[in-house]
Here is the input.
Amino acid sequence: MGLYMDKVPRVILVSLILTSTISWLIISIQSDNDNKNIMMRAMMVYDPVAISLFTITWTVGMAAMMFPAIVPMVLLYNRLIGESNNSKQNQSDEGLIIKARPKYNNKKSFSIKLALFVACYLVVWALTGVALLLGWSIPMNLLMAGSAKQQQMINTIFGIVIILSGLYQFSPLKTKCLGYCESPMSFFMQRWRDGVWGAVKMGTYHGLYCLGCCWPYFLLMVALGWMNLLWMGLFAAIIFGEKIWSRHGIWIARLTGLGFVVAGLFALLGIFTL
Here is the structure.
């Protein structure tokens, strides 16, 4: 068991990074025009096939963008469920969590919990993608006739959305959610649950906190081009910096928010269009 436990963190790290890399490759070989056609079909006629294809591609994109940023969270979860129950307890916060959890002594239980934790995290983002797509479809369907006045309305809506996304970066909710994402120990102290059902709950909670941190980026990504590699790469880098740069990620968020507000004002002034 000891040798297995030593290998697990390396396996987790390699698996997450490899999955992210493969996902990036899948996205990169897809035709941008095909992606846009699928998205337009999904938004304009609510074609179930197009929505399903969008959801699959979106989920692959989430794995590409988010898996590197959740490595610390998954590694700590692996440690907490894998350490021996009779290990010496100390006065630390981590010790309080470990004391509360049951003894895990088989590889199958160990792997199922890790898989469920990551899978439930990803499910939150998959559902978010569908919600964003359908949400954007409402103003697009109302204003897609193509007249100059309607195009101006689209630019106005786009500008307002960008400004609101930028202002959110300064909100207390953003700060709270980012705090849990930056500090995996704080997350587990607040949300620890035992067993397989606990893995489901914690994976879902982590997905929701991550959504609280990052929804503006993905709202804009759908508007700016869905699986556009440029925007995916930019937002993935911002998210990684926010989550990994402990205690300083909030400044990355606020600088990004400031950039969003400026870009939104430019859109309202007609300096650039969607």
